[in-house]
Amino acid sequence: MGRGLCFRKGEKIEFMPQSSNKKLIFGTSTASDGPMGTSSITDEHILKNIRLYVSRMCRSVDPKKTITAQQVHGNRIEIVSEKNSGSCMPQCDGLITNSPNLALLIRTQDCVPIFLRDDDLEVAGILHAGWRNILSGILPRSLSEIENHFGTS
Q1: CB count in 10 Å sphere of residue 145
Q2: Mean pLDDT score of the chain, rounded to an integer?
Q3: Is 58 in a helix, a strand, or coil?
Q4: DSSP state of 10
Q5: Nearest to residue 125, comparing CAs of 109, 111, 138?
Q6: Could you report the per-residue pLDDT of 14-64, keeping only the tens digit for each?
Q7: CB of 52 closer than 8 Å to CB of 30
Q8: Which residue of 59, 68, 114, 147 could cross-link 105, Cys pair, CB 3.0 to 4.6 Å?
Q9: CA proximity to 46, closest of 38, 134, 58, 8
Q10: Model confidence at 112, in pLDDT bands (50, 70, 90)?
Q11: pTM across the whole model
């Protein structure tokens, strides 16, 4: 019998493709990590919680290089880079980058995160996917954005 993947809140998982030594790390926060915000990361208390969480989960990423989305239950995607570090991208529910060592942050409660990755082009992304996002076409739109912006298929 094969082994299943067990993932508990507050832990992190690292994926490393066989053909690469680059990792994609993701995790979930818990109430003990403190509030992570609702629609912006401009509040200094929330910023502090996010930075502490990122530094605990991934020591190789500068917590000031965190980018989050406002999350409005739509299908807008932002292509982000280091110039967006420390910001909350307005009116969007998805973040895609080819910049290494950025922390892309999506908050979920009854929605799910969708992780995107193209190993050949070294593109990664994360989507906030609730029922409204899915109905508005966030997944096909994100794949189209990756194809148009980075040339993947």
Answers
A1: 18
A2: 79
A3: coil
A4: T
A5: 138
A6: 444 444 556 666 667 777 777 776 545 556 777 788 778 877 777 777 778
A7: no
A8: 68
A9: 38
A10: confident
A11: 0.79
Q: Spell out the long-range contacts of 116-123 with Cβ–Cβ below 8 A and sequence spacing 24 or more.
A: 116/142, 116/143, 116/146, 117/15, 117/24, 118/146, 118/150, 118/152, 119/17, 119/19, 119/20, 119/22, 120/152, 121/150, 121/151, 121/152, 122/22, 122/98, 123/96, 123/97, 123/98, 123/150, 123/152
- The residue among 36, 33, 34 whose CA lies nearest residue 10 is 33
DSSP class of residue 7 equals -
Pair 24, 15: CB distance under 8 Å:
yes
| 8 A C-beta contact, residue 46 and residue 35 | yes
Question: Residue 67 corresponds to which tokens in the numbers above?
Answer: 């980018």
- Amino acid residing at 132: R
Residue 83 three-state SS: helix
The partner residues of 12 in beta bridges, in order of sequence, read 27
